[in-house]
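Same chain as my last thread, 315 residues:
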Amino acid sequence: MKISLAPLQGYTDWVFRQAYQKNIGGIDEFYTPFLVLQNDGIVKTAHKREVEPYKDRCTDLIPQFLCGSSEELSFFETYFAELGYNKMNWNMGCPYPMVTKKGKGSGLLPNPDKVEEILKSTFHNKLELSVKLRLGLGDDSEVDSILPILKGYNISEVILHSRIGKQLYKGKVNLNRFNDLYEKYGSYLGYNGDVCCKEDFDKIKSLFPDLQHVMIGRGLLKDYWLPHKIKGIDLPDSDKRRNQLKNMHNDIFKLYSSYLQGDSQIMQKMKPFWEYFSSHFENDKKVFKAIKKSAGIKKYEQAVEFAFSQQLTLG
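reply #2:
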């Protein structure tokens, strides 16, 4: 069973990934937040940091991109290949209107002919291509027209989030539809959606015992040892977990400080990180409140010291 981490914009950037894997670990594959090609035909510097330089970014990393045209797919296939990657992931699942209105993300799913046109005219198998998918944009039957196309163009794997785009992340995942598709496509499908704890994983595994890939997201941010629990790995004792958390925080702080300019930018990055990081402490609300109220690096460091004096959750 492969456990991967979904890209969560604003949280699971290269800084988080490096610090997490160094200090805690357990994830088999990371997916970058999606890269996009700007109107001027280049990639943002912030997006380039996610994948460059290859020697620092490539460990267990799959670069993910958005595209709605053959030109964009061609660009990313060449770009990632030249960097040295051998895999990439096409995001056809993003549900946000600012993306779908441009015919990207799950906005592509009502247009199977467009998907086939992009693959037919552009994809050269320079890299192994997987796809992140939803059931559809507005109709959960749209996926039925997309999957045969992907299978026919040697797409290595489809990671299916079992909601439609219009739902965003609301309501329940549609396990009945995933089951229908899994009976037809088997382990070609990976699973994503609402695996927030070990019990959620156990439910999915009991329903689909031959599943080969589960992608988790916010569940990991709330519990950094969730992959350990899923894999049956014994958890470290409280003192070791505290040290791992502290070292992870310090690595993140150091990495952000290495390229961000000034205290304000660093605080803008660090404070949101604590929205989930604080959940590892029993007194999580008090910890997060102290972090939010801190003004400037010195006050922040005092709030961090207070946080690590608090009792950890039982794990």
